[in-house]
Design a protein that fits this description.
mainly alpha, 105 residues, 4 helices, 0% strand, globular
Length: 105
Amino acid sequence: MKHHIMSILGGCLFGIIALLLKGLLESTMTLHTLVLMAALAAAGFVLVQIGLKHGKASHTMLLTNVATILIPVGGGIALLGESVSVIEMTGMAMIITAACILMKK
């Protein structure tokens, strides 16, 4: 259980870092976007952890899986009036996956 909480917190942290970078670049950031992106990052992080733990999937496979999960969610955020590009979502997926791979080693 403790491990899951750490995963979620880790995911949130990466989401917030990604967002702060985005905010610094665009200087348009709302708390709404921050919360959404952190939640997405946490979800992605947990999904990757589950994949690494239970699946026999390779890291490349996981990367594509996370990207396919995050991109539609990015589209969902865009519908809510927040601008999130596919590139940002994929980048975020890669950050989360890389973090998970590093944590596993």
